Amino acid sequence: MPEVPLYDIVIVGAGPVGLLLSVSLSRWGYKVRHIDNRPVPTATGRADGIQPRSIEILKNMGLKRKIMAHNPARVFEVAFWDPAPGGKIVRTGTWASCPDFLDARYPFTALLHQGLIERVLIEDIENNGTHVQRPWTITRFETNNVNPEYPVEVDLKNLDSNVTETVRAKYLYSGEGARSFVRETLGVQIRHKDPISHVWGVMDGVVRTNFPDIKMKCTIHSDHGSIMVIPRENNMVRLYIQIASSTDPDFSPRKTATVEEVQAAAKRIFQPYYCTWDRVEWYSVYPIGQGIADKYTLDHRVFMGGDVCHTHSPKAGQGMNTAFHDAINFAWKMHLVESGFANRDILSTYEVERKFIAETLLNFDNKYAALFSQRQPTATEVDSAHNSHNNDEHDTKNDFVEMFKANCEFTSGFGVAYNPNIFNHSSEHSFQHPLIIKDSPKLRPGRIMPPSNVTRVVDANVVHLENEIPFNGAFRLFIYAGASQSPKRGQHKALSDLASGLTSPGSFYSRYESKERQRDNHHDSDNPHSRFFSIVLTLVAKRSEIEISDLPAMFQDYSGRIYADDRKDIRVLDAKCSAHAKVGLTGSEGAVVVVRPDGHVGVSVRLVEGQGTVEALEGYFAGFLNGMYDKQGKSTSRRTGLGGGHEHVRSQL
Ligand SMILES: Cc1cc2nc3c(=O)[nH]c(=O)nc-3n(C[C@H](O)[C@H](O)[C@H](O)COP(=O)(O)OP(=O)(O)OC[C@H]3O[C@@H](n4cnc5c(N)ncnc54)[C@H](O)[C@@H]3O)c2cc1C
């Protein structure tokens, strides 16, 4: 009998969720079988908006530059147009698409079609040894014990040649989009949030018009109907038009409209402005129900994500962005399990965290869609929404204002805030310690850490602190030394105690040290000691005052990750050390902020003299470490097999 090929994971579907998962796992050295049933990648159309938080994620993965090289349109403001007498339209207001109060590094939405984004991801996957095979599909799968290390048996079929193949894998991940064979086979139901479904027409092309906001994102309500205008790359524009809704008396989900009908409808809506089409690049009609899958996995071996698990209206531009978050959330958790760092139970947090976000998004999308279809915001409401962020305590409790804020958080991606669990510390966590920082509005576990600028000591470059560690599957320990810790030799007792606690043989940090002790780590500033931890040290001092050789020996291996907190920040102008102030650290206090591999805060611990800080960190990590090494550093766990072992994990960024 021929040998059954073994993979760490089979990924079905090469849309945004499958591709970003494949990028991550291929970079980290996993053996990935990736298939898609379409003969060629997306050529044009489909989703198009990359939201501010997703831009940060792509930046963190070193992919942003390649995507921005396609010159996407960048949307900073949204314009609202409402009916005016005589069947015309008038602008009633504009607002920032990502308002100042969100403190986003990239406060805009980048708009370009899904195919261009997918192309960048596919190239990266191929550079890392995985090939997306087309047109292949999945015909059967089951989890069985024939090979306990590779418990998922998957039958694949080439749709050109009808060749079939059986493979075994540790995991199967379905990123098949809204119609999923895997989801249906598992019998997982989609629950429809809202019984109302919609049919949308979406058209990309180049228009000739005197409409003044054609380069802005606009919502236009008129006596002749409503459309959404979205500027795009290459002088293109996208128009969304609702063709039918199940509230219509003659509704059919199969209702459709021709290009000419949609163009004629747009022409009527744009009055008194003219609008003619030079070229149509893509046109599609697609029905949308707001649905969410009951489960994202049944056995923690077969997982699903992206549109397989949640669908919603395109109004908030979330399809691809939510898919990205699903992908990276699963990637690092699978990685920590397969590399022997964390116990298998952590995989349950994938569904818990991502389903909660999908639920929140659907609730929001539901209300948002209703608000825009039922009534238009007046200019006064828009102004009130716009001004409210400047003075939070004087907020008017106005439905529209509240919705506007929720909208901005969700559409920007900063609304992704995970609830307390083993990774996101809270007062309900089984481990408590007096040094754990609680109730800090800036460092809420489950949320993203605020961005800040610092000066890198080794080369005096001003850098984005939050992005200095790439998405490499490691936890990031952001050490804010605080004003009481001078960089001068002998004047940083708390830092020295932290370094000696972390490097002591029994510590969580030492237990997960790379086993390749002879490894040359001279050029590795991200993971010189351990694949599971990256350390970033920010000192309150001018760059020129910091001599890395004066710091505890451990930090000298992280020389490329030592920073001076010496830059002004407009948001905390009075602060002496703005990076510290932005995470809520004032006075002389320091802290260690543990950031999960996906950039969300896990826990923050005060930096003090003695061993308290390390004790608190130890307790946090003990919640999910798999005990692979005992306190003496001896391995206690089984080997994890092909690929994915920590020896295999490559840091390639
Ligand atoms: C026609 C259309 C138009 C859309 N327009 C918009 C829009 O205007 N704005 C917006 O925000 N969103 C839009 N979306 C939704 C958006 O594209 C998705 O939210 C986003 O792509 C989700 O990514 P995903 O990876 O989960 O799924 P998808 O991008 O759908 O990718 C799934 C992939 O899996 C493949 N696949 C499916 N089944 C199998 C199988 N059994 N075996 C192998 N491969 C399989 C598919 O061919 C596809 O390549 C549109 C979707 C469609 C289908």
UniProtKB/TrEMBL annotation:
Positions of transmembrane segments? none
* Keywords, alphabetical: FAD, Flavoprotein, Oxidoreductase
Domain FAD-binding positions: 8-364
Which is one GO molecular function term here? oxidoreductase activity, acting on paired donors, with incorporation or reduction of molecular oxygen, NAD(P)H as one donor, and incorporation of one atom of oxygen
Q: Which residues form the Phenol hydroxylase-like C-terminal dimerisation domain?
A: 416-625
Query: What InterPro entries does the database record attribute to this sequence?
Result: FAD-bd, FAD/NAD-bd_sf, Phe_hydrox_C_dim_dom, PHOX_C_sf, RIFMO-like, Thioredoxin-like_sf
> What family classification does the UniProt entry report for this protein?
Belongs to the PheA/TfdB FAD monooxygenase family.
| Matching Pfam families | FAD_binding_3 (PF01494), Phe_hydrox_dim (PF07976)
Q: Which organism is it from?
A: Exophiala oligosperma
What is the protein named? FAD-binding domain-containing protein
Keyword NADP appears in the UniProt entry:
no
